[in-house]
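Why should sequence recovery work at all? Because a backbone constrains its sequence more than one might expect. Tight turns favour small or flexible residues, buried strands favour hydrophobic ones, and helices have their own preferences. The token representation captures these environments compactly. In the example below, the structure is given first.
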């Protein structure tokens, strides 16, 4: 039987950069995939930080329109549906006095998202009202590795939105994905303790053709590559190198395959395409 899976993404690129290869394999297996991105709106009266980032994106006007088109192209390449939920991205948000909520790039990575209750409840509300969460057989959400404020908000909001559904089984459908490129950057050394201590790693072997599809889809996010990696070449090098990193003991990989990792709350067979679960699960 074919299933319908939902990937919740903080920004227009996260789900594909993090899971594009796994998504490709799900689609190849005949399943339907929807990527819902929460923060897809800008604001007026841009902060200095927003202006600096727009320059890095190489975009001057209609920044979100261009980024949404990049997302449609990337998701179209993988054959998945897209939903844009239109909340303001952190660099456009303002506090009650009208000042920008974040003035420096490093302010976005402080990991204090639990104090952002107003944005969390807005995100939980759009996830509950714009999507029918009970329709999806699995819901994939970010771990928030790297502690980007918007990633943390999406994780907590998704947990809240599923927990608020009276059908308790829905919250057991959550599966957590590793945030790339933040995991590759290696700066968040405590993530396993802080963000995944109650979760279990599950490994999935993927064909190399899915990795090729993922990098092709990432290339659609032209404006973000400059910000995240400096160059296309560096993106390709890092993403391919990272994909071949996981070699869990006890798993014999077939030729032309590699290992992808997710984190689950429930039983291993709960994770679609799972091929290997460590013995202590
Ligand atoms: Zn992001």
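From this structural description, the recovered sequence reads:
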């Amino acid at each position: 039987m074919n299933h319908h899976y939902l990937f919740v993404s903080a920004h227009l690129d996260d789900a594909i950069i993090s899971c594009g290869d796994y998504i490709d394999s799900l689609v190849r297996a005949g399943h339907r995939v929807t990527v819902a991105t929460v923060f897809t709106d800008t604001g007026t009266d841009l902060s200095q930080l927003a202006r600096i980032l727009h320059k890095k994106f190489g975009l001057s006007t209609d920044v979100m329109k261009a980024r949404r088109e990049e997302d449609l192209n990337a998701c179209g390449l993988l054959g998945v549906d897209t939903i844009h939920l239109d909340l303001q991205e952190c660099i456009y948000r303002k506090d009650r006095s009208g000042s920008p909520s974040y003035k420096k790039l490093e302010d976005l990575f402080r990991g204090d998202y639990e104090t952002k209750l107003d944005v969390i409840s807005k995100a939980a509300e759009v996830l509950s009202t714009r999507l029918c969460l009970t329709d999806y057989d699995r819901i994939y959400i970010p771990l928030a590795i790297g502690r980007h404020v918007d990633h943390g908000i999406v994780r907590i909001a998704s947990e809240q939105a599923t927990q608020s559904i009276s059908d308790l089984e829905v919250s057991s459908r959550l599966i957590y994905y590793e945030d790339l490129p933040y995991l590759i950057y290696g700066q968040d050394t405590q993530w396993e303790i802080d963000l995944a201590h109650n979760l279990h790693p599950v490994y999935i072997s993927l064909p190399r053709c899915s990795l090729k599809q993922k990098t092709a889809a990432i290339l659609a996010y032209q404006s973000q590559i400059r910000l995240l990696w400096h160059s296309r070449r560096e993106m390709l090098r890092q993403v391919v190198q990272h994909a071949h990193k996981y070699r869990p003991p006890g798993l014999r990989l077939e030729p032309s395959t590699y290992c992808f990792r997710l984190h689950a709350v429930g039983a291993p067979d709960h994770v679609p395409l799972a091929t290997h679960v460590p013995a202590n699960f």
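A few observations help interpret the result. Residues 10-11, 14, 148, 151 surround zinc ion (CB under 6 Å).
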